[in-house]
Specification:
The chain is mainly β. It has 1 helix and 10 strands, in the order βββββββββαβ. The strands form 2 sheets. The chain has a 6-stranded antiparallel sheet, with no helix packed on it. The chain has a 4-stranded antiparallel sheet with strand order 3-8-5-6, with no helix packed on it. 18% of the residues are buried.
Length: 128
């Protein structure tokens, strides 16, 4: 049995019926014993971050924010730094231009809407 990598990352293709909404999904996993800090560079796009395991930390200009389950962030105008604690995995859905607005009927803009819990964007389940 080969030893498992302590940190892994990559891209997952988008299903054909979602190609107009998302670019390829990004994933990362920290299977090591220490936190890992990395940078993601989705320029001028809105993203959904899903965190599995202990909360991931997103480093924003206004301060660090824990992502316990999911979070919408954007539009990003700079690189996004994040820290994955041991045992955490993230999946990042990067929206195509204007797709976030087409899906949710609103956009995230200005400092007061830089972050949002996706459940607050619509009535009912936000991913249905």
């Amino acid at each position: 049995m080969e030893p498992q990598e302590k940190y892994s990352e990559g891209r997952i293709p988008v299903p054909a019926n979602w190609e107009e909404v998302f670019s390829p999904f990004y994933f990362a996993a920290n299977n090591g014993d220490a936190p890992v800090r990395k940078t993601l560079v989705p320029s001028f796009q809105t993203i959904l971050v899903f965190s599995f395991g202990p909360p991931a930390i997103v480093h924003l200009p206004d301060g660090d924010v824990e992502v316990a389950a999911s979070m919408a962030i954007g539009p990003l105008k700079t690189a996004l730094e994040y820290t994955l604690p041991p045992g955490n995995q993230i999946l990042v859905a990067i929206f195509m231009p204007d797709a976030f607005y087409r899906l949710y009927g609103q956009s995230l803009k200005g400092r007061s809407q830089y972050l949002k819990n996706p459940g607050e964007l619509v009535q009912g389940h936000c991913f249905s």
